[in-house]
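> forwarded from #structure-qc
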């Protein structure tokens, strides 16, 4: 048995186990307190950065406009349109998917089939504020005419076999 140093238990004894548990609890409290301070600091720093990027666009980002460069008049961005950097990826991806749907519909109307479609999105970083944004996109679609099975009445009539 070890005597308590703080004198709270005058004349009493404290086991090593009790002292160990007390030390662990104090250590946990200090760690939680330190972690709380760090978390608050990280949240404050993150909030400032997010406010600068999301709530206040720099002049370059505010002036950025998106306009469709294709000859498809039925898709979005026919006139120059502003899209915030934080929403640019979804806006460009949605726009490119419009092209995919239109090409698929066009292939069906022309009795063709889509062999392959791909969408690529290009990204850039704003030189003024460092925000990453979707700078544009490209859709590629490959189609071919459907192969028509011709039934001339002779398929399956002749069978070659050897014994």
């Amino acid at each position: 048995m070890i005597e308590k140093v703080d004198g709270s238990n005058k004349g009493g004894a404290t086991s090593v186990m009790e002292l160990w548990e007390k030390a662990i609890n104090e250590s946990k409290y200090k760690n939680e307190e330190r972690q709380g301070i760090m978390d608050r600091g990280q949240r404050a720093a993150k909030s400032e950065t997010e406010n600068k990027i999301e709530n206040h666009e720099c002049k370059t980002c505010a002036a950025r406009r998106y306009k469709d460069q294709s000859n498809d008049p039925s898709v979005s961005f026919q006139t120059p349109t502003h899209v915030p950097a934080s929403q640019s990826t979804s806006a460009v991806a949605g726009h490119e998917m419009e092209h995919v749907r239109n090409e698929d519909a066009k292939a069906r109307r022309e009795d063709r089939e889509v062999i392959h479609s791909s969408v690529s999105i290009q990204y850039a970083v704003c030189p003024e504020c460092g925000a990453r944004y979707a700078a544009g996109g490209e859709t590629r679609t490959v189609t071919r005419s459907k192969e028509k099975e011709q039934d001339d009445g002779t398929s399956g009539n002749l069978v070659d076999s050897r014994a």
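QC bot note: The radius of gyration is 34 Å. Confidence is low (pLDDT under 50) at residues 1-11.
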